[in-house]
# Entry
Amino acid sequence: MAASSPPRAARPAYYGWTLAWMLGPTQLVSWGILYYAFSVIMPSMRAEMGWSAAETSGAFSVAMFATGLASVPAGRWLDARGPRLLMTLGSVLATALVVAWAGVQSLPGLYAIWAALGVTMAATLYDPAFWVVARWFRRRRDRALTIVTVWGGLASTAFIPLTTSLVQTHGWRSAVLALAGLLGVLTILPHALMLRRGPEDVGQAVDGGEIEALGARPAAVPLRGVSEALRSRAFILLATAFGLTSLMAAAMSVHLVSYGLSRGLSAETIASAAGTVGVLQVVGRLTFAPLAGRVSRRAVTALMFVLTALAMVSLIALPIGIGLILYVVMYGLGHGALTPLRASLVADTFGSAIYGRMNGALSLVATFARAIAPVAVGLAVTQTGTYSPALAALGLGALLGAGAIVALGERR
# Structure
């Protein structure tokens, strides 16, 4: 009787999924505190310090400029050294700076703190997280991006109401201190202990498949190849499209509360609406982003741009009650899906070897748009006395973004 062959050892669970499920919660906390909390803190901070809306929101714009400038060297670092040290130090520094924000006493101090926080955003938010996904996944990239961005999409849902409650109960300075504690406890150790550069570091292959060449890394791309990619038509179209949607996102993040108050809504109603946007972002990511892996990614992405344009129209063309409801639905679904769709388009177009550098360059454009948006909208409102022209311009920008995606060409 022939001897039976020994059973094959069970393949260990793919560590990429562990990273995706770790990065999701850390993105939720980081986005909620470093990005969304500012708009809730701003009215109370202005009231205490006597600063104007433009002066105060300018600090957030400075942070966006700093993020954009830092995203390029951060992307270069990621391609060369991986995410572990970058994201860990980013979380440590961000925690210390949020503590400093709680004690700020001057406008220059506020600007200095937020400029430094902008640098930490380049090291801790979606760009380095998406680099991890691009390096660890290929066929299953859409699913992994969905996991990370579903968690991230809950940031406004969780932290806008939480921050509102903390401010109303304890005052804005104590609220910021509490947020700093959450940021440090929930992000530093996961980044320090769990992040790895790539699947080869744990003896695995991309997507958890069979290892063909243990220790192999994505081939280095010559500098000339990166330079050519930066001048390519695809890069220009992607930068145009996602720069425009980033402009809209930053403007609405900072000004939605003020716009709602100007239309007679209560702070609680606006906070609930903003939180619902976060829920629907999750729905958009669960529904439309995975769909793009099976049908035309270009068509799905363009449709999401159109939805966000219609969201702007609803705010200015309809009574505030129904307009706000439609805005919440369309903007939540559309903007939510665009986040993982962008990451997929960048990885599909440029590959993983130069993903950090190309995504960093795109982020420079996008964060420049985020930087000018709050102040530009604030100045437009000051000049016109109403939000309608600014919202109409944001909607037009979203339509132009849809056109740029259509011109990009078919991607799957």
